[in-house]
Amino acid sequence: MKFIQKIFSVKNVPGLRGKEKILCILGLKIKFNSLYRKYKFLGENNRLIYIDENKESEILKTNEYLSLKIKGNNNKVILDKEYLNNIFSLNINIYGSNNLIQIGKTKILNGSINICGNNNSVKIKDTVYSLTFSANIGQTALNGDLADLNGRIDIGKNCSMGEVDFFVYQKDTSITIGDECMFSTGIVIQSHDGHKILNNSTGNLINKKKNNLIIGNHVWIGRGSSILKKAKILDNSIVGSYSVVTREFFDKNIILAGNPAKVLKTNINWDRESNF
Questions:
Q1: DSSP states along 14-78
Q2: Is residue 183 a contact partner of residue 155, using CB atoms and an 8 Å limit?
Q3: Confidence of residue 17 (pLDDT cuts 50, 70, 90)
Q4: What residues contact 254, with CB distance under 8 A and at least 6 apart?
Q5: H or E segment at 135?
Q6: Is the pLDDT of residue 22 over 90?
Q7: By the 8 A CB rule, do 87 and 118 touch?
Q8: Residue 151's closest CA among 140, 141, 137, 165?
């Protein structure tokens, strides 16, 4: 047994993207990443494709930092071929049918996309910045059925994200992010309330659905902020750290802060360039 271990052994060592394994055969060391996963498709007409010079082509070779699991029919995941190597770690899980995920050119992509239900989409346009995020649409009903949610998460061009969690769990609701936005870390953006709130006397629903959560162009969201149902933030605005935005604001170029957030200053703008 010891003789076999001398000629063949596997060791775990720390790596940039998780634990890496070193396979030793007769003194020859071969390193491979333990995060390597194959794609798993269960269903019909599910496609993973890449865009190459505006043409769609099937991806045949797996990417060691992309995990993709699909259970359902007629789902499509579209990635940009040129930027496949910029995926740091991306986990995609789809449980349902007729869903679309489309990701453009990115600098560094690190996160997860989870869809549970039918007729949903996550679209991320080209960006020169890094994205760290999780995008979550839908959940199974108590009886296990999948709903036709029609949920959407749309992210515009040249946005940056330190750490953002998106949640769309309610039917016919969406999150729309404009171009040139900057998001810090620990941010939650959620288009719905988690549970029903009822009038104690009448039993009527108080927290009714609001279809769209909208963040305009060139909006800066500070660390630890929550952008919740009914929120609307227009262009060139700032949301201060740890704020909670729960309603629509109809003016551009404003600073919002507090819980609940309110307007602190008007007629402002901001720039990505550091002031130190």
A1: EETTEEEEEEEETTEEEEEETT----EEESSS-EEEEEETTEEEE--S--TTEEEEEESSS-EEE
A2: no
A3: very low
A4: 234, 237, 238, 263, 264, 265, 266, 268
A5: strand 131-137
A6: no
A7: no
A8: 137
